[in-house]
Amino acid sequence: MSHDVMEPESRAGRRGAGKGRVRKRRTGRIVLLTLLVLLLAAGGGLYWMYSSLDSNIKAVDLDKELGTDRPEKLPTSGQNLLVLGSDSRAGDNAALDKASVSGARSDTALVVHIPEGRSKAVAVSIPRDTLITRPECKRRDGSQAPGANRVMFNSVYAQYGPSCVVKTVEKMSGVRLDHYMEIDFAGFKGLVDAIGGVTIDIDKPINDKHSGLELAAGPQRLDGTQSLAFARTRYGVGDGSDLGRIGNQQKFLTALLTEVKKQDLLGSPAKTYKIANSATEALTTDAELASLTSLSDYARSLNGVDPANMETIMLPVAYDKVDPNRVVAHEPNASQLWKAIREDADIPASAKKSPATGG
Q1: CA torsion sign, 107 to 258 to 222 to 54?
Q2: Which of 158, 226, 244, 323 sits 20 to 30 Å CA-CA off 128?
Q3: What is the pLDDT of residues 261-297, one digit of tens each?
């Protein structure tokens, strides 16, 4: 098998003196994008009014591109959703980061499992710097690329697109993904601004020279640009690695969901339209969900899921022995986690433990 070229920049590493430190931190990483379905659910029946927004949504035909070589569907009515955040620095996104980075990457990836009954959910994040085995995939020009070992997870999207990411996640987990959602950072900025910002209690002052983010400790009201910088910052948080952002992303989504619950979206059609427009302009889904009607129906099916009952777990990973700047799935913990999701079962405590914490 060939080897894909990996990015030279260290993201999972930069552990320095912190390598030997063991911090007790919740390993759950909430990726911000799960908010989208919850927002659609909050809007509920108003979405039928805005059929003109259907054209905003871009679609990926997974059935056509992936064929039949996929894991079997759950024998229950449980659902699995892959939520991806694209990190392109082109166009509007260039203004969100001072760094000069070309191309597009999957900055965040989350497998959301909604068990049968739709009363709770489990969100499993896959660290972007995880070394994985990529299956054979189509290149963006339509040609076929052979599979490769020790490929950095977020490079799959950059080189081969969303269908290959879905195929890669299904191969590494054995979990059949029912749906796919992707939103870019510029669109998420508009989404936060559309609800008027969020209030976050900052534990320690942040001074990130790379992004220009400066926040004092204590409660802060953040707009869309500040919110994205807060969620993305690695420098000055933990060991400066991708794993170190876990706490920030978890805290931000909690604050955002709290803000949404405070607002009367059903009583404000204008605000609902503004949120819907911001969300759909930045949204890519699988073909089955690529309309407001389908999204609204799917969101209503999840109305019973209380955010307070969403368990968040980071895929158990360990620092790679060859390249300490990368991480690999930690076994048998990772396999236990995916097995529980495949079987719609409770996740054992051992499957939630990750040797690499970013602390």
Answers
A1: positive
A2: 226
A3: 677 665 677 777 777 777 778 788 999 998 877 887 8
